[in-house]
């Protein structure tokens, strides 16, 4: 591959990276009457029966909706609606305006990260992470608050392994020194373009503290992972789904990952899961490439023998392989949603902006984003991207498995390059995928962060537009879902049913209008699950709330929940 070709693609990549995925009718959010219908069978037996079950606190005997605000009933068009939208959009500025004291630490942590990238040319010259978005230092800031994991009782093992295209992928495996002998496993699939691994370490650490073993990694074309594969698959899965780059692909590669599709995340997520489940008796071997059917096992073996790649997951003994989940952000959310149904080993998934439904044929990324109704608020394409739509896009061309596993989504009012809404959006658009899963008979839900953006799922505490409390809400619901559906711990159900995010003091303290309700008033947040006793809980409007929820003071957590408290 020529330097000219690589440099040309780098220029295009950097030009697109600021506008690409990172890594979202009637007026107001409205309300729905609470409903109770049957959904899924009673969950499986607990994964750790030797531990005492967490008692389920009593539910609210009398339901009181709210607190709601003038924005919930504001009609469009009206001066009130316009004022409410201005206040709502101002929430996106909370993150960049609140963490100025962390800037020196961010600079130090980012410098250390970039120094490690630069030394690869000397320490491991076969690695080729450049060009990618982290080649531009400003696009990959690192949170200093998650850098001392081992001093807080954490275990973390850096790993390298060979993908199906022959690229060297970089990752980490996380757990805690204390905990059960075996723990459910979770793989986190990062987002595209600037969704490098380190910005999801907060979630890995919170999940590890909650009793899981977790793997994070850089998809091909991200962070520390190789940009290109090995001959004859140099271009397979390159450029991490960057829109537009695929137009430059040679014949035979436009359907195999050179920008504009999700194979670095769909295939990369499955490759990471394969590595995560490897053991000394069953060492990791990459599956054959999509483009040519070539096996790159020889490269994996060479690098293992040289002491560079890991032969198997170094924390393999801790995994409960019968209870596995996926989490993912952006393109990783698309992949997590799809793989949860397609891969028989996976039990459930949490999709961070946003949950999608597998379809065949899968639409390409660009057309899916342009044509989804959420990005056509006035009936025409918008200059802003407000969401990613309901169908899973950029997925492999494979027969679809039936929907049979529970999945959960978290979304935000705004998405990429956030701009205020010019008109009131359809309040059902961001919960459509969850509704379809419920209609298929599986537990599901979607919560929408009021004033949040596509970056509420990253732990970058400066510069990027995001709400202040979104990352804490993301952590709460992610831990809760996996506790219920992987650990089968009653505490997970209690957390899911809690009313705390309807009246969160920390949210109200920083909100322009003092609104303490963290759920969107533009879009409905919903939850439809089977409780431990076999009964159904269905709430189509969590902002308003529903009978059967658990009062915040009885949900088993402290008054002010934060991810920082949970990773200590």
From TrEMBL:
<keyword id="KW-0732">Signal</keyword>
<protein>
    <recommendedName>
        <fullName>Alpha/beta hydrolase</fullName>
    </recommendedName>
</protein>
<feature type="region of interest" description="Disordered">
    <location>
        <begin position="23"/>
        <end position="70"/>
    </location>
</feature>
<feature type="signal peptide">
    <location>
        <begin position="1"/>
        <end position="22"/>
    </location>
</feature>
<feature type="compositionally biased region" description="Low complexity">
    <location>
        <begin position="32"/>
        <end position="53"/>
    </location>
</feature>
<dbReference type="InterPro" id="IPR029058">
    <property type="entry name" value="AB_hydrolase_fold"/>
</dbReference>
